[in-house]
Amino acid sequence: xxxxxxxxxxxxxxxxxxxxxxxxxxxxxxxxxxxxxxxxxxxxxxxxxxxxxxxxxxxxxxxxxxxxxxxxxxxxxxxxxxxxxxxxxxxxxxxxxxxxxxxxxxxxxxxxxxxxxxxxxxxxxxxxxxxxxxxxxxxxxxxxxxxxxxxxxxxxxxxxxxxxxxxxxxxxxxxxxxxxxxxxxxxxxxxxxxxxxxxxxxxxxxxxxxxxxxxxxxxxxxxxxxxxxxxxxxxxxxxxxxxxxxxxxxxxxxxxxxxxxxxxxxxxxxxxxxxxxxxxxxxxxxxxxxxxxxxxxxxxxxxxxxxxxxxxxxxxxxxxxx
Length: 322
Prior knowledge:
Blueprint: E1 3-7, H1 12-23, E2 31-36, E3 51-55, H2 61-68, E4 73-76, H3 85-106, E5 110-114, H4 129-142, E6 148-153, E7 156-157, H5 164-173, E8 177-180, E9 185-186, E10 189-190, H6 191-203, E11 211-214, E12 220-221, H7 222-233, E13 239-242, H8 244-254, H9 265-270, H10 294-297, H11 299-302, H12 307-321
Helix pairs in contact: 1-6, 2-3, 3-4, 5-7, 5-12
């Protein structure tokens, strides 16, 4: 293996994937190529000697073809949680279509595609734009003729997440936590376990054609996760469940806050589907990975306020004072 391309490699999951790929002794002298529209977004990867962060827009055919030239395996981590129906379509359907065509042209041996837990068998059954387009993207890749490994994680937590960290941040600001979808169920999975699964997909050609569901060892409601974030950050607040109609008002308000929204109406629609293992597909343990729980991992980072979270909280405070 000489060249591995990681689309979305500058993001939260991509950071762990690149670190673990480089640490894997089987990589040899292979290069890990991470394209980004703004190369500076990947500056946290610059110290990794086998990682090349290159300026490229993978939504442009010429740039995509250039980064795939000579690639053995491609990892696709590109996804969005918020946006218009057209934005979901572009990220989750159009890009996989173009990626598959470019991989066929470049002779890429395998795609490792990170999808999402809760994706239905038929896209029309999905209650949200996110799940509908994720289902369509999977279907596109399966029909492409390029060998694929599909990974479906539940909500992913880790040091740089925008999930537990932001719930902790909100509790530093608010006296109570009004919460829509409080009973929605998740099986949170550690980002390092997801990265290990990606590395297995990259290194093991026998996994091609398989779909894996990635979940942690415990099922938790959204309210459980919010309480956990507050407790571990030392700022626990009472959680007050509210109706979905109120949640949609909250989502509209959050859309006005600086930075990426914590919750959107489409997220609320996605929570109509339990984000837990279905029990019919293989998972982390079949990949030889013993999953970690939030209780085991999150205290190490939620007990301190990261610089990115501090900036987010300062932006919210400034917005509130206007």
